[in-house]
Automatic annotation (TrEMBL):
Classification of source organism: Bacteria, Bacillati, Actinomycetota, Actinomycetes, Streptosporangiales
SUPFAM superfamilies linked: Periplasmic binding protein-like II
Source taxon at top rank: Bacteria
Listed InterPro entries: Bact_solute-bind_prot3, SBP_3_CS, Solute-binding_3/MltF_N
Keyword field: Signal, Transport
UniProt source species: Actinomadura litoris
Gene Ontology biological process: amino acid transport
Protein name as it appears in the record: Transporter substrate-binding domain-containing protein
Signal sequence residues: 1-24
Record family assignment: Belongs to the bacterial solute-binding protein 3 family.
Amino acid sequence: MRARRIGALIGAGLALSLALGACGSDKEKTEAKSVAQKAKDDKKLTIGIKFDQPALGLKKPDGSYDGFDVDVARYVAQKLGVPANGITFKETTSANRESFLGGGQVDLVFATYSITQARKAQVTFGGPYYVAHQDTMVRANDSAIKKPQDLKGKKLCKASGSNSFRRITEGPPDGQLAIKGVNLVEASSYSDCAAKLKNGAVDAVSTDDLILAGFANQQKGAFKVINAPFTDEKYGVGIKKGDKETCEAVNNAITQMYSDGTAKTLLEKHFAGTGLKFATTAPQPEGCA
């Protein structure tokens, strides 16, 4: 009898402990910080950027970071309460942006991250902070490719994790032109695509004009952009799905960046002399979903 009473007491204690633990877990979930709150409290953020895209996100030999995305990230972080020395930049590729946000490896992503309906299912987007346009880059001495339709029968680079090739080879909703007979060549990144274009492994690279302008300007005389844009690519700030507080704070910062003239200054800093015609008015926000 005594043993049964002791067993009952132990069981009751275990049940109470589990119940309290569950309550604690629920409370922790409820009180999970938004990135905006974390920025305000900790004065630190980990931000995902590209490390290999000249004029956008580039890690230089001395370990510093340069580019339009980098400078926009610093501006937004400062508006969230994080100084430049409170930012840790983490290399983020086209293939791992969603997993890095979902897994908490980064707090925000500024990495030529085009807003699409498919990505909205996995990520909340702030912005856009710029609307780029897909164009095509070829070797400087190439006179055969003057418009996207000339890519039929040509070798087009397909960068891992990027959807740009779909705009050439597929129709809507994910594609655009549905050009048949394009031969896709796999590459790990757009810097790899530029290398393949230079050595003749591909005939063309098609993606956002800001990305192409950066490579063309870095290797002057090697490449040219054909100036035949055919899409709008809305560059968004990647945020973990559901963090609307941070999304709204990011949108406010982007609005200020255009109204105070910083956006124009940064675009001129990184793209003046490339022949790129860039917009200097704030894009319409997508809305925080």
